[in-house]
Design goal:
It holds the Pfam family DUF7092. The chain is an alpha+beta fold. The chain has two domains: 93 residues, Pleckstrin-homology domain (PH domain)/Phosphotyrosine-binding domain (PTB) (PH-domain like, Roll); 227 residues, no CATH class. 50% of the residues lie in helices and 14% in strands. It has 15 helices and eleven strands.
Length: 347
């Protein structure tokens, strides 16, 4: 029989089927057999081999639990002694590595840095890429389902009815249909009108193809061509499914679940994230660039001078008193820098 080190372990003994706790000592001989110490014999500690017991993994300096075959329990803080008398291979390499990492502050800090680094890379690179793949692979019906009801929610707490006349709305809707007809998009676009003193001059695109024009933007624009230039940009957000992608990114692990399992039903549960994103968040540099690219190409395709987009951007910047992108509404917000974007649309 293979021999091993012997030791006396001090701790607390819990008899089987009882909540009573008693100080106790157990002896482990060189053959791995457990005996109650002389002072603990009256407690009825059973005799058995170490291989018959269930021994908890070492986690830092927390007490170890040794469970006897009859269900009784011995708990000790003498972790080093337990490691000393464990059967060969009883601790396992993984537990040993974990204990070494936990034993030194430097190892803990390094491990924490690695974990946070992984989380950062996951959120900055993996989740956005996975969100793009998922959003573009889903059928248009899913984007429509996600967008349905969003405008109703926004009307409840953010938007007021538009003050524009029915004739003006019909005029702009007709222009949008002519603009969208040349897009070849799989979505059906409709133009809605709202107002809000807090939001002011702005426009939004919902995942289902609904475009929302705020009264403030209609009042600010010098001509309808500028408004249609903004609509071209918003159509770009719909075509590239930016609203759905942002909702997926905000959902975190949900996007990975959809990517791995193909559970489309989970995607339709993202609708609640859309209103908050539209009002509180901004598109990424990549998304704004994609929408700009689409707007520029589409405007050239339909014969709408790109300079109209540059002009409305300058008007919006002046109305908000901003020299950079901070505080800019919807399609002007974040990156790339406003001046760089304007230059792309100028002659």
């Amino acid at each position: 029989m293979t021999t091993q080190a012997s030791a006396v372990l001090k701790g607390i003994y819990y008899p089987a089927g009882s909540s009573r706790a008693e100080p106790a000592e157990i002896m482990v001989d060189t053959y791995g057999l457990i005996h109650p110490a002389v002072s603990s014999k009256h407690l009825g500690i059973p005799r058995c081999g170490m291989t018959e017991m269930k021994i908890s993994t070492r986690v830092g300096s927390t007490p170890r639990q040794l469970r006897f075959p009859d269900g009784s329990l011995f708990e000790t803080e003498d972790n080093d002694a337990v490691d000393q008398v464990l059967p060969p291979g009883g601790s396992g390499w993984f537990e040993g590595v974990i204990h070494k990492l936990e034993s030194k502050a430097r190892h803990v800090l390094i491990s924490a840095a690695v974990i946070f680094g992984f989380i950062y890379l996951f959120m900055v690179y993996v989740v956005p890429d996975a969100s793009r793949r998922v959003a573009m692979s889903l059928p248009p019906s899913v984007a429509v389902s996600v967008g349905e009801g969003t405008l109703d929610l926004l009307d409840d707490f953010a938007f007021d009815p538009s003050r524009l006349s029915a004739e003006r709305k019909a005029e702009l809707r007709q222009q949008l249909q002519e603009l969208a007809a040349a897009s070849g998009s799989e979505f059906t676009y409709r133009l809605e009108f709202r107002s809000s003193p807090e939001i002011g001059a702005n426009a939004f695109a919902l995942p289902d193809g609904t475009l929302v024009l705020m009264d403030g933007l209609e009042e600010l624009a010098e001509n309808d061509q500028q408004i249609m230039a903004v609509m071209s940009h918003e159509i770009g957000h719909v075509v590239h499914r930016h609203g759905l992608r942002q909702a997926l990114q905000r959902s975190g692990l949900s996007v990975m679940l959809i990517l791995v399992t193909g559970d489309i039903v989970s995607a339709t549960n993202l609708a609640a994230a859309i209103p908050a994103f539209l009002l509180e968040s901004h598109y990424s540099r990549e998304m704004e660039t994609e929408a700009d690219d689409y707007a520029l190409q589409h405007m050239q395709k339909v014969g709408l001078e790109p300079v109209h987009f540059a002009n409305i951007m300058r008007l919006l910047a002046a109305s908000h008193g901003q020299d950079d992108e901070d505080g800019m509404p919807g399609f002007l917000s974040t990156h790339p820098m406003m001046e760089e974007r304007i230059e792309r649309f100028e002659p």
